[in-house]
Amino acid sequence: MSSAALRAVQPDDDDVVTAHTALTRVKAYLRDHQDDEGDVRVRGEETDDVLVLPRGAVELLAQILAYMAAGHGVSVVPADAELTTQQAADLLNVSRPYLIGLLDAGEIEYRKVGKHRRIKAASLVEYMRNDDQRRRRAADELSALTQEMGMA
C-alpha cells in the first residue's frame, strides 16, 4: 500500500460546514429507511440521474462525514491491507520503535515478509479499539477513586 493511500483528507472550514450539512441529510435518510434492505438510490435534484450505492458504503460515508464535520482529517484503508511498520506507527500516532515494541510484546498481530514486518489494518484497528476500551476503564476507575477520596 502506498503512502499516498494513507494520506488523510484534511477538511478546511468550508468542507466542515458542507460535511455537517451532508451528514445531517445522510443520517436522516438512514434513519428514515432503516428497514430498507439492499442498495441506496440517490437522485440528483436537477437531473434524472440515479446513483446506486451499497447501504454499507452510505453508512461508511456517514462516519467519514462525521469526522470531517468535526474538523478531523480522514483516510480510508481497506481492512485486508497490509501496512508497513512506519504506516502503522503513523496511524497510531506513535514512533516506529514504540510500535515495534507493541508487535514484539504480542499486542498487535503481524507477519514477517523476509525481515520486514507487515501489519494487517484489521489487526491495527482491533488494537486501537481494545486500547480505547482500556483507557476508558482506567479513566472511569480514576474518576471513581477521585470521588471516593472526596476530591471531586
UniProtKB/TrEMBL annotation:
InterPro entries: HTH_17, SinI_DNA-bd. It comes from the Bacteria. Residues 83-130 form the Helix-turn-helix domain. It holds the Pfam family HTH_17. This is Helix-turn-helix domain-containing protein. It comes from Lentzea miocenica.
